[in-house]
# Entry
Amino acid sequence: MSKAPRTCLGCRAVKDKGALVRFTVCNEKILPDFKGCAPGRGVYICRDEGCVREALNKKGAFSKALRTKVAVPLADEVWAAVRAGLKL
Ligand SMILES: [Zn+2]
# Structure
């Protein structure tokens, strides 16, 4: 598996993939992809609530990074999914 570094959409820090959560779009909805194997473009965000919220607050950041129009869900909803997936 590739260990290529990725940039966090929230804080712009460059980190190893393992330190980040990948997000993809499924049915125009942003969802965390914990296995890192969902097809299509993905964005990476630190495993950090502040970064998740910051990325979601950046207007158009997801659409731009994913090159597709996406509906940005509530930060609480996304963070809850990340927490559940990471078992935090
Ligand atoms: Zn970050």
Remarks:
- The longest helix spans residues 75-86.
- The chain has a mean pLDDT of 89.
- The helical segments are 49-57, 61-66, 75-86.
- The domain at 6-86 is CATH 3.30.1230.10 (Hypothetical Cytosolic Protein; Chain: A;).
